[in-house]
Design a protein that fits this description.
Distance between the termini: 60 Å
Largest sheet: none
Radius of gyration: 25 Å
Number of strands: 0
Helix content: over 70%
Shape: elongated
Structural class: mainly alpha
Strand content: under 5%
Length: 183
């Protein structure tokens, strides 16, 4: 059992070292990109937790309050229902625009990494006076890794954002249908 635990710990350390090596190859911009990705996914996870944990409780309260009302057809009752629907929409769509902005920043940071990497390549060429491929390899790595990482981060973020948006739309429609139904 101790051998298995030691192997797991060793593998975790080696994986961390590989990740750190990858981040160093990509340069400073890759660290910024990683920070944006972490913030993005924190907001995505927050939204998922809200959908699973908090919103069902709020929805239940709104439906119970609506069903307890005797009047469902007056202007006042419809205004109350519309107010609840508006609150629900605001709560459901909270942070989605911020997630969208963070996702849009990812490819821009990747392109910034490309530019800084190419500047590094040209700097090596100017200082060394040659176009030795070995000297340019680190600059090319600095140019390609952030671009790739930015695109991957943006694709995963776009997928998460679109799924969250679709879930918001579906949930909002179900709540509206529940509040429109009579007893």
């Amino acid at each position: 059992m101790a051998n298995v635990l030691a192997n797991i710990q060793l593998n975790a350390v080696l994986d961390f070292m590989d990740l750190f090596s990858f981040m160093e190859q990509g340069g400073q911009v890759l660290w910024w990109l990683a920070a944006v990705v972490v913030v993005t996914w924190l907001f995505v996870v927050e939204r998922v937790i809200y959908f699973v944990w908090s919103f069902p409780k709020e929805k239940k309260q709104w439906i119970e309050a609506w069903q307890q009302r005797n009047d469902h057809a007056s202007w006042h009752a419809l205004a109350i229902r519309d107010g609840w629907l508006s609150e629900a929409k605001q709560a459901l769509y909270q942070h989605l625009n911020f997630i969208k902005v963070l996702v849009a920043i990812c490819p821009m940071l990747g392109l910034l990494g490309t530019v800084t990497g190419m500047i590094s390549v040209f700097d090596v060429m100017a200082n060394q006076g040659s176009s030795d491929p070995k000297l340019m390899a680190s600059g090319i790595s600095l140019a390609t890794l952030p671009t790739m990482a930015g695109m991957v981060a943006a694709l995963s973020g776009v997928f998460a954002h679109s799924r969250l948006t679709k879930a918001c739309q579906r949930t909002q429609l179900k709540l509206e249908q529940s509040l429109r139904s009579q007893r």
